[in-house]
Every structure is written in C-alpha cells, then in structure tokens.
C-alpha cells in the first residue's frame, strides 16, 4: 500500500494527456534496464545484444585499472563525498584528478563537477551576465542552451556551423557588448566537428570569448587525445577548456581547465559548484586512472578509429545516409519518428541495441538511429551489426 497522498484528479489527467500526446506522435520514451556493464555487448532486458549506443568510446569504463582505482578510493574515502567541497572539505582524489587534468590539457589548473550538465549551467552564467551577448550554435547540447538562458544575457542562435551568420551577428551587436561564443566541439547527435579555426579567428577579430563543450571530443580527438581544440590546433587561442569524464574517460562528472585565476574565480562564483555535493571519490579516482591509460595506450584511439572506418564504410556501402559525421558517432538519418522507432525495434529484435533519437533531442524531420562505435568492438561484431542494420533498413525501405 502506498503512503503517498493521492494525486489530484486534474493533475493526474494532465499527466496522462501529455503522455498520450507523446505516444500519438511516437515520441514517448521509457527506461530500459541493462543488467551488465556497457561494453561492446550488454544484457538488455534479459538478452545479450551488440551495444551501439554507448559513449564509452575507449572501453575504459570496464578497464580493470580504472575499476580497481574506483574500488580503492571508495574503500579509503567512502561511497560519497559528504557535502559540497567548500563545506565539508576537498578530498584528495578530487585534487589528484584536477592536477592530472591540468597536466593533460596543458593548463595551470582545473576544476571538476558532478556532471557535465552542472559544469555548463554554472560556468556560462559565471562568465557572462545580463549586460552581455551569447551567440550559440543551433545544435548546441541542451546543457549549453540552459546555461545560456540562466545567464540572463541576450541570447542569439547562429545556423549550425555557419560562420557567415555568426559574423553577421557579431558585426551587428552594440559597441562594447561583452560577447561569448558557445559551441560544442564534437556535436553529439550529428558527429561533426565545429570549425574551431574560423570561430577562433572571429572571436579574435570581434573581441569575443569562446566557450567550447568538448564532452565527446575529449580522449578521442587530437594527436594525443586532448580533444577538439588539439585536433583543430587552437588550444592556445581558447582560454578555458570544458569536457566531461563520462564518455571516453569511462567515469562520471565534468571539468573545466584554464588559468589558476580562472579556476579560483569559478570556485567563488559558480553556483553549480558551490551548492552541489562533490563527485564521489571513486569516480574521481577512476577518471584519473583513465587519463593515465589514454596517455600510455594510444593504440586504443587507433583501434577506435579503425572500427569507426569499418562501420562507416559498411554503412555507406549499404546506402545509408550518415549526415556529416567525422567521428565515432554515426547517425543514420531516418526522418519520421515512427519509422525510426520501427527500425530501432527491428534492430533490437535481431540483437543490436541502437535506439531511435527523436525530437526534441534532434530537429523535426531528422529522427535517426544514432550509432556509436568503441575501441572494444571486434570486427566480427561490427560485421554482424551491419547485416542486422541492412535487414532493418530494407524493412522500412530506407535503403
């Protein structure tokens, strides 16, 4: 028997009507239970499937060294951090990770957050306020958009990757307006890379700051895996670098790196740092261990890109539309959300899990199957997945 007070009938009806509307438009979502680690395969709702939806690009979430680091830190420091770091004290695993991140990114200092989302919704308002202007790429991640809105600054969106549109907006702003250009480094739903050389040139010409969310680029892009800014050769032209610990690093959390004064400024002004319990020590230790592996085992990145090439070439050979992907994120554009759902269900029925991505996550008429490949997938798994993808694509007349 529930101890909850019964929901007022009007509220219950409102919830049900909204859910039915989502169902009618093939946009209803539900949680699916995975009863295993998220490796190249996973046990999903009782059956083993080839997992093509994880952002665990380098397979580090299950790497024995990373797992053992999390266990050891948990044994020593506990499962939780107790409180925010300014309240309860700052645990050594957080300091160790931040020092490692600063070394990895070539900056003076770093600050970690419990999630990438918290990093963005706290840092952007700390950088610019209601007297400023934010110009953001149309396909920015939701956390960036929310951070922009929370800042209170004037907020304008430029067409995706369109530097002519961005420059027009910069040229039209009132003289002396503090300006922040906001973009993803590697876009999570299309798999393309922001034109960072052009953005840096415009920022310098019009005296604007740049804020880049490199959640998906960190660990996989660039000669040493430092991310999109290294790949685009603009690291020294962007004063602070944001990323997450939850993709290629196989842990959880977000981070910012930059000058010591910038990090001290965030400690004193960033609400999502000040008022949030610190990340658990096990996650911090796991991320620090993952950074070491990224630096010591570059062959993981090589294997990831070999797998990406094998999957992408196979999909193109079959006739799939992959949009403009330049990364291990390979979206198959379907268009209609109902057809995308039908294809995802067919894939799952035959042993591949790659869910349909539908509005509002992506623009209308661009529903897709978003595939992500990892370093740990075997050639046999990729080839088997291609057979299943071909069957599912032909079943809905997509190829």
From TrEMBL:
InterPro entries: Aminotrans_II_pyridoxalP_BS (IPR001917), Aminotransferase_I/II_large (IPR004839), AON_synthase_class-II (IPR050087), AONS_Archaea/Proteobacteria (IPR004723), PyrdxlP-dep_Trfase (IPR015424), PyrdxlP-dep_Trfase_major (IPR015421), PyrdxlP-dep_Trfase_small (IPR015422)
Gene3D superfamilies: Aspartate Aminotransferase, domain 1, Type I PLP-dependent aspartate aminotransferase-like (Major domain)
Organism the protein comes from: Nitrospira defluvii
Protein keywords: Acyltransferase, Biotin biosynthesis, Pyridoxal phosphate, Transferase
Family affiliation: Belongs to the class-II pyridoxal-phosphate-dependent aminotransferase family. BioF subfamily.
Protein name: 8-amino-7-ketopelargonate synthase
EC identifiers of the protein: 2.3.1.47
Pfam families reported for this sequence: Aminotran_1_2 (PF00155)
Quaternary structure (record): Homodimer.
MF GO annotations: 8-amino-7-oxononanoate synthase activity
Function: Catalyzes the decarboxylative condensation of pimeloyl-[acyl-carrier protein] and L-alanine to produce 8-amino-7-oxononanoate (AON), [acyl-carrier protein], and carbon dioxide.
Pathway the protein takes part in: Cofactor biosynthesis; biotin biosynthesis
């Amino acid at each position: 028997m529930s101890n909850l007070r019964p929901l007022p009938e009007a509220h219950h009806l409102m919830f049900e009507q909204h859910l039915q509307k989502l169902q009618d438009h093939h946009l209803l979502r539900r949680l699916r239970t995975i009863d295993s680690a998220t490796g190249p395969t996973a046990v999903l709702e009782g059956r083993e499937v080839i997992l093509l939806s994880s952002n665990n690009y380098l397979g580090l979430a299950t790497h024995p060294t990373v797992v053992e680091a999390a266990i050891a830190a948990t044994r020593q420091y506990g499962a939780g951090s107790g409180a925010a770091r300014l309240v309860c004290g700052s645990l050594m695993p957080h300091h160790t990770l931040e020092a490692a991140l600063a070394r990895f990114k070539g900056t003076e200092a770093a600050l970690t957050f419990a999630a990438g989302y918290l990093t963005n919704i706290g840092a952007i308002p700390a950088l610019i306020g209601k007297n400023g202007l934010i110009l953001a790429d149309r396909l920015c991640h939701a956390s960036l958009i929310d951070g922009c809105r929370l800042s209170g600054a004037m907020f304008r969106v430029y067409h995706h990757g369109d530097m002519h549109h961005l420059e027009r907006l910069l040229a039209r702003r009132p003289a002396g307006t503090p300006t922040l250009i906001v973009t993803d480094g590697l876009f999570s739903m299309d798999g393309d890379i922001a034109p960072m050389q052009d953005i840096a040139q415009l920022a310098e010409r019009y005296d604007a700051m740049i804020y880049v969310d490199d959640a998906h680029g960190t660990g996989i892009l660039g000669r040493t895996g430092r991310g999109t800014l290294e790949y685009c050769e603009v690291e020294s032209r962007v004063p602070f670098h944001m990323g997450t610990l939850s993709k290629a690093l196989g842990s959880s959390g977000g981070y910012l790196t930059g000058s010591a004064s910038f990090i001290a400024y965030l400690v004193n002004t960033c609400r999502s740092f000040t008022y949030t319990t610190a990340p658990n020590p096990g996650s911090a230790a796991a991320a620090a261990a993952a950074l070491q592996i990224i630096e010591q085992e570059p062959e993981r990145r090589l294997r990831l890109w070999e797998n990406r090439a094998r999957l992408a070439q196979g999909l193109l050979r079959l006739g799939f539309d992959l949009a403009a992907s330049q990364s291990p994120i390979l979206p198959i554009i379907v268009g209609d959300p109902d057809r995308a759902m039908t294809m995802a269900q067919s894939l799952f029925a035959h042993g591949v899990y790659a869910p349909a991505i539908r509005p509002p996550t992506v623009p209308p008429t661009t529903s897709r199957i978003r595939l992500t490949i990892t370093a740990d997938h075997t050639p046999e798994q990729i080839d088997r997945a291609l057979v299943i993808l071909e069957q599912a694509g032909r079943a809905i007349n997509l190829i």
